[in-house]
Amino acid sequence: MTEQSTPAESAGPAGTPPGRTGLSPRKKQQISRIVQYVALVAVVVFLALRIEWGQLAENFAKPEVAAETLPDLFTVALKNTIIYSVGGFFFAFLLGLLFALMRMSSVRPYRWIAIAYIEIFRGLPALLIFLLILFLPLALPGFEVPGGTYGQGILGLTIVGSAYMAETLRAGLQAVPKGQMEAARSLGMSHARAMTTIVIPQAVRIVIPPTTNQFVSLLKDSSLVLFLGVSGDYVELTKFGNDMASTFANATPILVVGVTYLLVTIPLGYLASRLEKRQARGR
Amino acid sequence: MTPVNHAVEIRDLHKHFGKLEVLKGIDFAVDPGQVVCVIGPSGSGKSTLLRCVNLLEQPTSGRVVLEGVELTDRDVDIDAARRRVGMVFQQFNLFPHMTALQNVMIAQRRVLKRGRAEAEKIARENLEKVGIADKCDAYPLQLSGGQQQRVAIARALAMNPALMLFDEPTSALDPELVGDVLTVMRKLAEEGMTMLVVTHEMAFARDVADRVVFMDGGVIVEDGPAAQVIGEPQHERTKSFLRRVLDPTHTDV
What we know:
Family (chain B): Belongs to the ABC transporter superfamily.
Shape of chain A: flat
Keywords (chain B): Amino-acid transport, ATP-binding, Cell membrane, Membrane, Nucleotide-binding, Transport
Radius of gyration of chain A: 28 Å
CATH class of chain A: Mainly Alpha
Helix content of chain A: over 70%
Structural class of chain B: alpha/beta
GO cellular component, one term (chain B): plasma membrane
Order of helices and strands of chain B: EEEHEEHEHHHEHEHEEHH
Structural class of chain A: mainly alpha
Protein name (chain B): ABC-type polar-amino-acid transporter
Membrane topology (chain B): Peripheral membrane protein
Strand order of the largest sheet of chain B: 6-7-8-3-9-10
Largest sheet of chain A: none
Oligomer: heterodimer
């Protein structure tokens, strides 16, 4: 801006002409880009020289060990991961809907119970909840989670997911315009009837994208089933990978398991963002 | 007991929203077959009055009697009473997750418990009546505002209401679509439907209404035949409102 004060340059109708001193913005941008490329190449070359690729491949990508994980990787581990997370998602959805409706209830104690549940279980680490479930039989002698190991895993994920689901569903229910309830009531529907046939179906549509993301998050949290001490036919991906890695004293199974998670989570994430876009267009 | 000679009767109706008194003692009645238009400036309480008739708003005090049934009785079966009153909203409020046909069928099925075939037949008849039989399978978002509003009218008619309430049914429409909806309403009036219409369409009020009610500040200022209230208004407030509405480029600013 110093050029503006030079008296030699007469100000035209559009102000002082831009100064030509120093580098032009285009030149500056060019230099900045060259610096960025040089930095990138330097890091890549450094890593390529520094890492012992043979040893890395030996430990993380050994084809013989990877082959050992089949077919159990899919027939047992992935199957169980999906059982735990789909089961947990299903019950989390139902419980979440119940708490969302209680949170909006006209009965004040229902609201308090819902708020307490949501605040407590949203604030606790998922691992802590699984540890609590592990110790449940000690706290309640004679009590057993129905469904055995599957039941315990699903219960844990249900508790982890339902608090988030309740908040998501509440947002969805509140996003349905008030006129929808009014139109339904003016046609003679009871409040409950209007909720079930008009409001809830629309709310569910609204929350499909965020709940898809919640499913992905539950799928990852299903790895915590590891802490329930599962074994044999009940292992899910992470536990399976961990066990195989110990057996072969090699990290390849963990990498294989990671890739298996991504096979599920990346398409789901993609699906969620597509649904989101479609909804943005529809409304 | 009130003798059943009014379709709807309103006595000393008051409605407060917190400290704001929106309706300050409304008395009036609509007889079977009558078409009554309620006009007035915005904020005059016309929509609130309409919404009190089917208890979408709970009146603070006063009585609303529909076909001899007192709706303001705390123990009334309000859902049963609302079946007799059709309501058409400014924003249409069609159910966006259902096709036009499903919109007209859903309450017949779930509320009146009609069979699928019967409900569909009645739905198609009513959609035909409002002139959109060919859009049965379209979703509301695929329809124009005028088409949506006509589906909403068909949806209300399919319940065989004794009284139809219209809450500014053309206010959200593009000007060229207003006529489609008003024509359907005029046909309905000619068939003898009892109608209570909150509107800014003075031409409709003048041509179709048996009676026009002018409201301002939460009270009824003037109530009489359309020709009288719109043609020769008695009160200064009515006159100045009509001047503003009928000749909007020459108002005293």
